[in-house]
Amino acid sequence: MKRLIHIYCGDGKGKTTTAIGLSIRAAGSGMKVLFVQFLKDQSSSELNILSQIANIDLFPCEETFGFIWNLTEEEKESAKDFYSNYLKSALHKVETEHYDMLVLDELMATYQYNFIDRDDFVTFLKNKPESLEVIMTGRNPSPELLDLADYVSDITKVKHPFDEGIPARLGIEL
């Protein structure tokens, strides 16, 4: 079976939740999943349960850099070095351990801000194994990634409690 490329994007809540749901569905059908998160500190509650599901492997992001717009040029260079190597390590793991699904949560911002090698990543997507389903999430996907995707879902915010000053809540957003 040929596996496809998905993008879940937009300013609405639910991009990561969608990727998690697909991961669980895939694991439940016997597929082997590698779940990779960029720009997050690994404290989201969903990781607690995902780590307990057979066939889902988490690839922890050992370092975070804060909000991109607050970074100095030096910090941006450090982030680029880190995320480039992080992605290369994840892709190497996919290739050597034969995963059926690769989730790249919050990849779009790392791509948009050149924190990964764009050309290498596009080449990977163009030449990915036919047996690998790729799920990408985040805001503002680039036109070249949209062109490569088979599925694109734009999750639009209509209303969100954060806009009313309600902070993220454990078990819902955290």
UniProtKB/TrEMBL annotation:
Could you tell me the Gene Ontology terms of the biological process aspect for this record?
cobalamin biosynthetic process
Q: Which residues form a coiled coil?
A: none
Q: Name one Pfam family in it.
A: CobA_CobO_BtuR
- Which InterPro entries would you find in this protein's record? CblAdoTrfase_CobA (IPR003724), P-loop_NTPase (IPR027417)
The domain of life is Bacteria
The molecular function terms in GO held by this entry are:
ATP binding; corrinoid adenosyltransferase activity
Q: What keyword terms does UniProt attach to this protein? A: Transferase
Name it.
Cob(I)alamin adenosyltransferase
Organism whose genome encodes this protein: Anaeromicropila herbilytica
